Amino acid sequence: MVHAGVGTAVLGAASGFSPAGLALADSPRPKRLRVFSIAQAKTYAAWCDVLAIGAAKAGVAFFVDKYLAEPYAESLLLIRYLQNPPYNGFYTGGIAGVDQESRARFAKPFVALDKKQKTAVVDAAVTSSTEAWTEPNPNFFYFVSRSDAVDVVYGTMAGFRDLRIPYMAHIQPKRPW
């Protein structure tokens, strides 16, 4: 999964567009959640951290929460291009599905699983072999949330630096995400 994330980041570099990179110039990381509950944010951050190591620390849950609370026209989330608004139900439903699958497989919420168990839940979503989670489509939720995770980890100046790719934005962000 890490190799695919690097490929996505390279594609983002080639296109010169990264929603998280654009968000850098707009505002600092929010200090409070506006859409997600704390439990939902923790679950989403843990899920995304499996998809792109460092996503939780980079603030993926705050990034998504911020744009779920903004007007649709200002959203920098990939879901904007794939589905009609509102998007809140997609994300909260997916987070609930992640926990539902975790409890069905391991009798624990996703955040309480070890790395191997978390990877098993992600793999089930990727291969469309979930036992309990059906809505939203687990594979589609994986696809969208992976984009969010990769975006906040690699779509920033620090992410480009970690990949050893020159950050050549037309307009430099004022501060990091």
Descriptive report:
The protein is mainly α. The protein has one domain.
Report the strand count. 0
Shape: globular
Tally of alpha and pi helices: 9
> Poorly predicted ranges (pLDDT <50, ≥5 residues)?
1-27
Average pLDDT, all residues: 81
Cα end-to-end separation: 23 Å
> How many domains comprise the coordinates?
1
In terms of structural class, how would the helical and strand content be classed? Answer: mainly alpha
Q: Which H/E pattern describes the elements?
A: HHHHHHHHH
Major sheet: none
The percent range for strand residues is under 5%
Task: Using the CA coordinates, give the radius of gyration.
Answer: 16 Å
**Which percent range fits the helix content?**
55-70%
Features:
globular; disordered N terminus; mainly alpha; 59% helix
Layout of secondary structure:
Layout: H1 2-15, H2 19-26, H3 38-51, H4 55-58, H5 60-69, H6 88-106, H7 115-126, H8 138-154, H9 157-162
Short recap of the structure:
Helices cover 59% and strands 0% of the residues. The chain is mainly alpha-helical.
